Amino acid sequence: MAPIKDPLIIHLSPFFSPNIGGVETYLDDLTSIISKNHLTQTVVTYSPLTSSITARFYTHNQKSKITIFRFPHLGGNLFHRLEKKPFLNFLYLTPYLFIVSFFITLFKLRRNIVFHAHGLNSAFAGYLLKFIFHRPLIVNIYSSYDSVPFSPFFLRIIRMVLNQADYILTQSHDSLGLLKSIGIDPHKLDLYRHWINLSRFKPLSPSKIPHNILFIGRLIPQKGVRIVLKLAQIFPQLNFLIVGKGPDYQKALEISKILKNLKLFGEISYHDLHHYYQMADVFLFPSLYAEGWGRTAMEAVACGLPVLGSNLGAIPENLDPSVSILFKPTFNNFKTQITKLLTTPKKYSKLQKNCRPYALKYFSSKNFTNLKNIYLSTLAS
């Protein structure tokens, strides 16, 4: 394919680093690998929405050809309170993201632009930008949304918006099936896999039996962190390591003052996150809702950690029984499975040995190839 003249990818996302989360870490890897492929990028996003970390309004890296605009938002934990209220969440995030993106695009109209919207809120903004500027639109869907109470009216709007995109990318058959069921054109849908930095996320010295149990995620009830707190109380011989912050952090902090085997690390920069996986022996993934993919589980497996986790959503597509034990995410089920790992070291050892080869096979940067081809074909059209 001939070189594309003056290409520009404009990423639209409410979430971007240094905000902490699965989408943010994926976008870190995505923008990094796009830069290595010599494509110019602009990111339009908010200042961290779910993290207390601050970031500069504007950053530009000439070497990596990426510019980031971060705009302020209202409310500390307002996003968490609106997560299960789609319309209010939409009003909170989307109009301002669209307005800012509109003016940024005005100054770049001479470029060969493709809009890449990350998540449903960004898709609405991307839909309007595509309509106004007649530039192609790619949409990434990161969640299955099967537990979100969309009204019939809102579903019609979602269907209208997504069917105007040129490509809709999702990571799981679970999400793919849901999108088809609400009337999304199947010809615009495409499956893809995430990838991770396997040179950073790698194992250190393996343990023969588990001692350190790790949880990484937002400290909210839906992520199952309260299960982890209860487990720490009944397994005093194990260390429970929790990385992340959120509304349940204060509750976890109070319990950690009583339990010596419960250690809280708060928010950790993504660039340091691999060290915490390397401190652990088992990864807990107790999400109580259908995760769209489960990136932390990928990072854990790459670091040699077997996963005990939820069988909801796309997790069973991401992991198989050679590296994980998946089940309905209840406290009793986690208690049972941890006990089995402690009493059957051969089972634990087998899972552990399978982890790194599994990650090398399924989570490498080769997974970017399909998305790269989509970028190039869309920019060339």
UniProtKB/TrEMBL annotation:
Domain named Glycosyltransferase subfamily 4-like N-terminal: residues: 20-200
Pfam families assigned to the protein according to its UniProt record, in alphabetical order: Glyco_transf_4, Glycos_transf_1
Domain (Glycosyl transferase family) ranges: 212-355
Entry GO MF terms: glycosyltransferase activity
Domain of life where this protein originates: Bacteria
Entry keywords, A to Z: Membrane, Transferase, Transmembrane, Transmembrane helix
GO terms of biological process kind: lipopolysaccharide biosynthetic process
InterPro entries xref list: Glyco_trans_1 (IPR001296), Glyco_trans_4-like_N (IPR028098)
Residue ranges crossing the lipid bilayer per the database entry: 87-107
Protein name per the record: Glycosyl transferase family 1 domain-containing protein
Lineage start: Bacteria, Candidatus Shapironibacteriota
